[in-house]
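#dry-run=false #mode=assembly
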Amino acid sequence: MLLMKERVNDLLLALAGKSRVYVPARMTTSVPSVASAAPASTAASAPAVASAPTAATAASASADTSPAATASVSPAAQVLSRFELYRPGTQPAFDLVNTTLPPKDMLFPQTQKMYRYGIDAEGNAYVDAIHDADEVVVFGLRSCDARSIECMDDVFCTKGYGDEFYEQRRARLTTVAIGCTEVAETCFCDSMGLDPTTAPAADIQLHRTADNSAYLVQAQTEKGGAFLKTWAQYFDEAADAAPVAKVECTLKVNSSDLKEKLEALFEHPLWEQLSKKCITCGTCTYVCPTCHCFDISQENRMKDGERFRCWDSCMFSSYTEMAGNHNPRPDKMSRVRQRFMHKLCFFEDRYGKQLCVGCGRCIEKCPVALDITLLIDSVQALSLDSPSTSSVIPSQAKDPSASERNDSSPTAQNDGLANSGNEEGAVHVAG
Amino acid sequence: MSALQEKLQKRAAELLESGEVAEVIAWGAGRFENQTTPLFVTTAQEAEHIRFNDYCVNTLAKYALNEKTAGKIAVCVRGCDGRAINRMIADNQLKREEVYLLGIPCQGMKDRRTGELLEKCTLCTHKAPLVYDELLGELVDTDGAADAMQTRFSAVEALEALTREERLAHFNEIYNRCIRCYACREVCPVCTCRECFVDQLRAGWQGKQNNLGENRYYNLTRVFHIGDRCIECGECARACPMDLPLMEINRKWIKDLDTLFAAGEAGLTDELDNALGRYDLSDVEEFM
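#status=ok
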């Protein structure tokens, strides 16, 4: 079947009448432009807030009209983007290679309220679970993000435990993937076993036609088939439209046998060397579509309270803190090692696939350019026979940062669950 | 630039060879064109990997705090790195003798995506290093530094000209976007608390939910905490994955402290001179 481009908005509008629809969109800003209020002579050095919308306008003007097929890999000025709720007037940005923020929060929100509890007026205790009952369609996923949902499904729905909060959202989610027609310089999904053009796990796969007038539509699951039937009026017969040529990532890594190699490298000095530049912020984990670690906490007010879970990051020292101030990952070396081992070794051990989908978001956003593909190169360059006490990372692509020794996080330890009740930022005196 | 890079490689190798320092903190090549990444060199042979070009965007000084356990550490310092070192010494985080400073003239660094000068560098008032043990290259006339003394406040002035409601909308927009990755805190050379208030979980100052209230609370508390010590390196805004203009409110602080206490700029020397860190009988006390 064929979805003509000029009918996409009609379809989205119709969908939005029945469910919540998320589309990739540039993050618009309602911030009053500080630049325009500035004296004319200083406008050139105006703050960053003003530049985002300008860049967005420029980008959208040239968006999606270029005769793609060839991989363009310029490090384009990044415009912030995310999957946003589609409303009449929303401009879906299907031309984005991928969004700044991953779509994982549709299934796994950064803050998810789980239940309310307390004592009611009659003096009886109550616990009410909070569930989200809306049907959700995510329209315009890329292959990397579709794979990330497979990874999260493994975590939240298999191995004998189903996470009800995740499962309920997952059951109501329909995924519509669009094949990539260009790649960013940081994209390396085809090195991680993905195909940028097709996401086999998506309910529906769209491929742009070569003449850029429509998408070829294919249902890949039962849910996808039912979806196409329900909305049949928006689709046309495919005739003989040809899909746009396949794209290939320009950034390549060798991901074969990574698990086996990493298993032997747990104590290798490369982790010390690699982690020196890490500042242990949570950027990589928060822009990662597969990072799924969370913390459960609660906030109490008088006789009522709410329990919620929120994203946590293995890069934070508090993540592994235990009662009595014990921390099994006390330094940044052990935290950096954990993150990469989880991505490329432990997860495969447990679920048979790597937890890195090659979307490149962490490479793009890391403030110190700690690059997972350089780690993979280093690991592949190590011979498993070599003594694991070698003190130098072998020749890397271009980044031969090589040194050793320990460092310790400047962050001291503490323990206990957060239990704070300043939702509106009431003024506290912080130490 | 490449002459400077050669000098840097040569001096790093010599310092390591002679045992004068245990490590040199510099920049190395990243994977992509026009990308660099912090580099930690411990042997003379590795010094050849040092890079210095227009894209050395990272301010390096804070790494000295972690690395100094190995012995004396050489750090490449431009204006921003040097002011960070000064401030860390003033804050008792570092001793001057723990670091060997390789002064590097700087003309500002560029964004690899646009090729344009980084915002933090266009507003920089001291590109040349103010502190060093030796200077590599010649101190050059740094364009625009005098202009920056004024232009760096233009965003603040624009904010001040907004109505209360507009300002609220502006900051709500910023803090709504914050994902609380704490990159701003981690790169900040004056965020050196052994234990950040955010991590004092038992005290519970900072709730863990991501919402406007919690995000605002985090950001504003950080501003209060660093306001009179901020060296205006702009690393917080550069590191922010959500491109939040975090220096706006920092500079509001700086501008007000300047007006009220003639506070001047932070980190020009390693004296403990921050306006809110000392008391002077001539201080204004309009609220008393």
